[in-house]
Amino acid sequence: MTITDQKPAHNDRAPEDRAQIIREHFRNAIIERRLAPGTKLSESEVGGLFDVSRTVVRSALQMLALEGLVRSERNRGAFVATPSPEEARQIFAARRLVEPGMAAAACDRVDPADIAALKRHLRGEASLMTERGPSARRAEIRASGEFHLLLASVAGNDILYRFLEELTARSSLVIALYGRSGASSCGHDEHESIVVALEAGNAQRAAKLMLQHIDHIEADLDLRLTEGLPLSEALHLP
Amino acid sequence: MTITDQKPAHNDRAPEDRAQIIREHFRNAIIERRLAPGTKLSESEVGGLFDVSRTVVRSALQMLALEGLVRSERNRGAFVATPSPEEARQIFAARRLVEPGMAAAACDRVDPADIAALKRHLRGEASLMTERGPSARRAEIRASGEFHLLLASVAGNDILYRFLEELTARSSLVIALYGRSGASSCGHDEHESIVVALEAGNAQRAAKLMLQHIDHIEADLDLRLTEGLPLSEALHLP
DNA sequence: TTGGCAGAGATTGTATCCAATCTTTGCTAT
DNA sequence: ATAGCAAAGATTGGATACAATCTCTGCCAA
C-alpha cells in the first residue's frame, strides 16, 4: 500500500484552505485503511500528488500530527501513526469515559429529525454489510465510526465532537493494527439498540449500551502481542 | 496589554522545534492572562520578538488555533480567541463530562508519591493566595488550572491529559471574559477536599466533589451579557 | 567476511521572495 | 459635509531557494 492510492483534490471550486482539503483526504484514507500504519508521507511526494508546494503539505501534516493520526519525526519525516498497545488502551479508556455520557446528553436533546437521520444511517450500515468487496468494507468501517460522530452532533457540543473525531479516527488505526476479526461490523445491532434507547428517551440505558458497545469493540482487540517489547514496534515496518 | 509583554525564548540549549517553544510561551501568556482575548498576533511582530522567520511563527499559530486558544482568520491574521458564551458552555459541559470520571480513575491509580505531589501543590496554591500583587494573581490562576492537570497525570492517560490541557487553557480565557469575581481562587479548599477523597481511596466521592467544583467555577461566570447579540463581540475590540 | 567510515543523494527545516487580499487614507463628486 | 471610490501601504498565503540533517552506498581495513 502506498500513498499513491490517494486521489488528488481538484481545486476547481475550492480556493480556500487547501491544507484542510489535504488533511481530510488523508484522514479519510487513514480511517478507511487505504493507508497502512507506518506509511511514509514524504512532503515532496504529497505535494506532487495534490499539486501544491511543500508549505501547504507541511501545514496539513502538522494538523494530522496534532490529531495523533500522523507521527512526525524531526529531520526524518511524517508517517502514518502506529499506536502502541498502551496508546490503544488509552484511546478506548477515553472513549469509555466520554461516550456514555455523551449518549445520555444526546438523549436529552434528540429531536425527531435526529432520530430519522440516525435510522437512515443504520439502514446505510445494514446495506453495506450485505455488499461484497473491499470497497464496501472500507465504507462499512467508515460508517461505523460515523455513527458515533452522528451521536456527538446530536449532543450538540462542538468541542466533544472534535475530540471524538480524533478518537474514532485513531480507533480505526488501532483496529487495523490489533483487530482480531478484521471486520468491525460486529457492532451494528448494538448501534441499532442505542438508537432505540434514544428514541425511548431512556438516557441511562443509552449510556449503558454505549459503554457495552465500546467494551465489545475493545474486546475484539489483541493487545498482548507487543506487550512489554518496546523494540518490537520497529518490527512492524515492512 | 500588548504582545510585547512576551519574553523571547533564548534558544541557547533548545535547538529543537522552536515553533513548540513559541507555542508554549503564548500558551502560558494566555493562561496567565497577560494576553487579553482579541489581541492581534502579527506574524512579523512575533517573528521579530522571537527572532525567527514568519514560517515558524505560522506553525506555532496554527497549533494554537487547533487548540482553540487562537482564532485565525484568512488574510486577516491571528487573534487571541474570544470564546462566545455558547462556546464557554460547551467547554464546561465537556469538563463536567470528563473530569469526574478522571478523578475516579485517578483514585484507582494514585500512589503515595502522587498524594505527596498533590499536597505540595495545594501548599503552593495556599501560599500564593496570601501574596499580593498581579504577579501572584497570575501564578494563582495558573496553579489552579495545573491542579486539574496534575490529577489528569495521576489518572495516567496521555490523551485525556492533552484534552484537559486544552480545556483548562480555554477555561482561563472564558474566566477572563465572563468571570464575575475576577479571582478564581474560590475553589482552593475544594481542591483540598478532592485530594482528601483521593487519599481515602473514595473514587465516588472524588468524582462527586470534582463535579461540584466545576459547577462552582461555572457558577461564577456571567454568560448572559452578550447573549444573542452577535455583533457585540466586535465591540470588545479596543 | 565484517565492521566502520566517508561521501553522495535525498529529505526536512527555515528564510526569503512574490502574489493575493485586506485596510487605510485621501480625493472627488453629490 | 458626507458618501463613494481609488490608490498606497501593510499583512497574510504560498512557492522557492538555501541550509541542516539524515540515509544509503561503496570502499577500505582488520
Describe the structure.
- Two copies of one chain form a homodimer.
- Chain A has a three-stranded antiparallel sheet.
- Chain A has 238 residues and is mainly α.
- In chain A, α4 (85-109) crosses α7 (158-178).
- Chain A is built from nine helices and three strands, in the order αβααββαααααα.
- Chain A has two domains: 3-80, Winged helix-like DNA-binding domain superfamily/Winged helix DNA-binding domain (Arc Repressor Mutant, subunit A, Orthogonal Bundle), CATH 1.10.10; 85-219, GntR ligand-binding domain-like (Four Helix Bundle (Hemerythrin (Met), subunit A)), CATH 1.20.120.530.
- Mean pLDDT of chain A is 88; it is low at 1-14 and 227-238.
- The A-B interface holds A 16-17, 58-59, 62-63, 66, 68, 74, 87, 90-91, 93-94, 97-98, 101-102, 105, 157-160, 163, 167 and B 16-17, 58-59, 62-63, 66, 68, 74, 87, 90-91, 93-94, 97-98, 101-102, 105, 157-160, 163, 167.
- The structure holds a DNA duplex (30 and 30 nucleotides).
Characteristic terms for this protein:
238 residues, globular, disordered C terminus, mainly alpha, 3-stranded antiparallel beta sheet, DNA-binding, Arc Repressor Mutant, subunit A, 2 domains, Four Helix Bundle (Hemerythrin (Met), subunit A), homodimer
The first-to-last residue Cα distance of chain A is: 10 Å
**Strand percentage of chain A, roughly?**
under 5%
Radius of gyration of chain A, taken over Cα atoms and rounded to an integer in Å: 18 Å
Q: If strands are numbered along the chain, what order do they take across the biggest sheet of chain A? A: 1-3-2
Quickly count the helices of chain A. 9
Biggest interface and which pair forms it? A-B, 25 and 25 residues
CATH H-tier superfamily of the largest domain in chain A: GntR ligand-binding domain-like
Number of strands of chain A: 3
